[in-house]
């Protein structure tokens, strides 16, 4: 019985090594240096060849499977930190997610951050996180650049997640500085030096969340790495100019500052929350020269989106637009009623046609929202 099971496994194409006492005739039809690993078993009219694992060598951690160059990342001007929608039981709503990515592509966004702060990567298991990166690459990787948030406050974890992210095909990694367990300047440099060799990398500086600024000395120390794509910078215009004067690629991390950072201080573009809602207008803001009138028109929306910590307002807005279900993974909860009413007025002032989705913006009742604590 054991021999029959082995033979049946081979006939199904399973990658197994036959036992020494199983008499299977070597395949003499395929003439190659791998003949000694090929075996043929007859089953009816057809034959199936099973090939041992030796033919498919496992990928070493130093072998990066990214699909783009660092230069292709540094040319991107609009990258959306994309929202992760949920089903009522708390699992990912991949249908809504795919629709949202398609809206980003149609609106002119050139890249997406998967599982970032906005995408609630910190509420995901690493299995969920890597799956979502791989899903995004598989479905949209030829149309938009996929940047996986594989950063961590643990260098060991950041290395492992980044290896997995590049293994499933992400184009670049986003790395934050270690948060809560803060380290020294030398420790920051060593942390980034450990992950930069794996593939194109964007470093993310947001002291309001990490509790620690990444000083220019750290960025300058790692800027010589060929995989160093640039910095998502949230400190402000002067820091942006400090880097652009040195030829370091910078994306504004603040939607409300992105216009001036781009056109007055030399930023390449923006890694945006607002572009989840209005990708076409954000592309126009980053590509078509100074446009203070458009920027001023969008500022109320930008300020509304950050009236509470991101992504609370964005999650609420996408639910109001009918683009995502009104499902929140705790500890996030929706904005209060008066803020939801304000959003509908903002949509009307900017024009519903400029927002993602097809449904009219609704206020929604408190009872419409689902809060998930275990998922």
From TrEMBL:
Coiled coil: none
Domain of life: Eukaryota
GO biological process per UniProt: diaminopimelate biosynthetic process; lysine biosynthetic process via diaminopimelate
One Pfam family hit: DHDPS
Molecular function as annotated in GO: 4-hydroxy-tetrahydrodipicolinate synthase activity
Keyword vocabulary terms for this entry: Amino-acid biosynthesis, Diaminopimelate biosynthesis, Lyase, Lysine biosynthesis, Schiff base
Reaction equations catalysed: L-aspartate 4-semialdehyde + pyruvate = (2S,4S)-4-hydroxy-2,3,4,5-tetrahydrodipicolinate + H2O + H(+)
PROSITE patterns the UniProt entry points to: DHDPS_1 (PS00665), DHDPS_2 (PS00666)
Enzyme Commission code(s) on record: 4.3.3.7
InterPro entries to which the protein is assigned, alphabetical: Aldolase_TIM (IPR013785), DapA (IPR005263), DapA-like (IPR002220), Schiff_base-form_aldolases_AS (IPR020625), Schiff_base-form_aldolases_CS (IPR020624)
Family the entry assigns: Belongs to the DapA family.
Summary of the function given for this chain in its UniProt record: Catalyzes the condensation of (S)-aspartate-beta-semialdehyde [(S)-ASA] and pyruvate to 4-hydroxy-tetrahydrodipicolinate (HTPA).
Name of the protein: 4-hydroxy-tetrahydrodipicolinate synthase
The species this protein was found in: Oryza glaberrima
């Amino acid at each position: 019985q054991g021999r029959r099971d082995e033979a049946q496994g081979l006939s199904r194409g399973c990658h197994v090594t036959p036992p020494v006492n199983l008499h299977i005739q070597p395949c003499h039809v395929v003439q190659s240096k791998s003949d000694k690993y090929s075996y043929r078993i007859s089953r009816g009219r057809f034959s199936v060849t099973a090939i041992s694992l030796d033919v498919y060598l496992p990928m070493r951690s130093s072998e990066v499977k990214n699909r783009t160059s660092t230069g292709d990342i540094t040319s991107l001007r609009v990258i959306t930190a994309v929202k992760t929608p949920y089903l009522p039981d708390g699992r990912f709503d991949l249908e809504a997610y795919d629709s949202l990515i398609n809206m980003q592509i149609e609106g002119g966004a050139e890249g997406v951050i998967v599982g970032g702060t906005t995408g609630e990567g910190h509420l995901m298991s690493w299995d969920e996180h890597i799956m979502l990166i791989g899903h995004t690459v598989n479905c949209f990787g030829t149309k938009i650049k996929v940047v996986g948030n594989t950063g961590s406050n643990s260098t060991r974890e950041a290395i492992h997640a980044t290896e997995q992210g590049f293994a499933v095909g992400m184009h670049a990694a986003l790395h934050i500085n270690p948060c809560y367990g803060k380290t020294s300047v030398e420790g920051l440099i060593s942390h980034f030096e450990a992950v930069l060799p794996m593939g194109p990398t964007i470093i993310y500086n947001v002291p309001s969340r990490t509790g620690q600024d990444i000083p220019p000395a750290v960025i300058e120390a790692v800027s010589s790495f060929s995989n160093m794509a640039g910095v998502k910078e949230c400190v402000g215009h002067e820091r942006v100019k400090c880097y652009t004067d040195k030829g370091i690629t910078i994306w504004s991390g603040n939607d409300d500052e992105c216009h001036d950072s781009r056109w007055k201080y030399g930023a390449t573009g923006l890694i945006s929350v607002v572009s989840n809602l209005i990708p076409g207008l954000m592309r126009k803001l980053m590509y078509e020269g100074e446009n203070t009138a458009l920027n001023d028109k969008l500022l109320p929306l930008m300020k509304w989106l950050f009236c509470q910590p991101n992504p609370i307002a964005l999650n609420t807005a996408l639910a109001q637009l009918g683009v995502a279900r009104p499902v929140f993974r705790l500890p996030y909860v929706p904005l209060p009623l008066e803020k939801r009413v304000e959003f509908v007025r903002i949509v009307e002032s900017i024009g519903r046609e400029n927002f993602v989705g097809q449904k009219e913006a609704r206020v929604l009742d408190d009872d419409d929202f689902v809060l998930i604590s275990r998922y």
